[in-house]
Task: structure prediction
Amino acid sequence: YYLTVNTSEYYKHILLTVDERHSSSGGDYPRWTSIGEIRYFGTREQGASTLHNGELALTRNLTVPRIGPALDADDTPRRDRLVVEYNTFENPTENGVVKDTSGRGLDGFMYGAYYDATEKALRFDGSDDYARSGILSNMSGDKAVSYSIWIKVDIVTATMIVSLGEAGVYDTSETGGIWMSNGGILHNTVFSNGVQLSDAITTGTWYHIVATKIPGGSGTGTQTLYVNGVKPSQSDWGTAGTSLSLNDPVITLGASPTLSQHFNGSISNFKLYDVALTADEVKRLYDMGRFGNVIAKPLYITAPLHAPGSIIQLQYTESNTKQTISATSIQAIPSLTINFTPKFSNSKLLLKAIVSCNASYVSGFGFIKDGTTVYSGNDSQTNGADGTIMTFYDGYNVSDRMYPVAVEYMIYPGTTNTMTLSPAAAKNWSSTAYDLIINERSNDDMRSLSTFTVYEIAQ
Result:
């Protein structure tokens, strides 16, 4: 039931009351009355704006025709002439409504249809599914119009894919849209007139379809069909000359206006224009692809952004306590040990240590990872030992001195598993055990500080 309140006055309250119930003979069960799917169309009353920090004076009328994405937010042609847009690149549905992304707020109510996240499309099962907008108040009369839509048909059957007309009305000149008849024939319609393409549609394939019409009678002189960006050869269909005469039209997707026919398949990225698109504009829509119409959004980075060569993380440890090591093999320095977990498996690790020490028979310093030498002294040498830093070759006459040894080395762990890293010392070629005193001279209590740092560097 449609109730029209044609008045220039504003209403604060509208009261709907049930005066009587529908009676029925037979049976003792009660009868109910329900009111549902109430929709209001009109203009919300706007009170005067108040500015607390000054006064706003307007010498011209302020007109806001649309609230939505910027007209150059993407490559969509003629965004300023979009009436309805259902962008399915991301889920546009919420609480049974498909959101209009044109900026005009003409959301569609879904009945049985649903959003398929895998296909990024609206799904229709061919029985009783459809989606329908509110009344398009600016589309009455004989209007220029363009429909742009992506479809994939599961079952070819006679049905309107898109219909523009008054809900529940399918009559001469009062309905336009895209109709598919048996055999996959495609029609750009004004009721049962317009233009057609034979053998245009098969099952299981995505098609981009654009149908345009300029004011005036139906037929090839005013109507055009495009499939996948091109205009195939098409012919008149029905009685040429019928003009559109729309009255309070709505957009219905997936069904005829009277809901007597239903589409079986998927619909994606529907657009309705109040202008006839040119061939170049149609081609641009097709070239954008089914997922091409993505409104530009701010860039949000939820994790650190690392360029090659930048430091991702570092760990540091230090020790100023005395520690003595006496050994005949490569030994880690326990007080300078770090358990390190790389964030990325392809990172480089820069190991840097400064060891303040007093030593004899120590030939070099390096590093040990998980108990295995990364680079350090080599006991097999006959005339000395390898090390990242060579030092204290003979090791004599150093008992009263303390030396700072700086050592660094780059490794490529190739994993994000936690590893144990530490600086290490190695003896020279002699069989004599080396003696290493960390952070103190051998003959007094003079102390120093030793440090170890691990840097993770982005590749």
About this structure: The first strand starts at residue 82 and ends at 86.
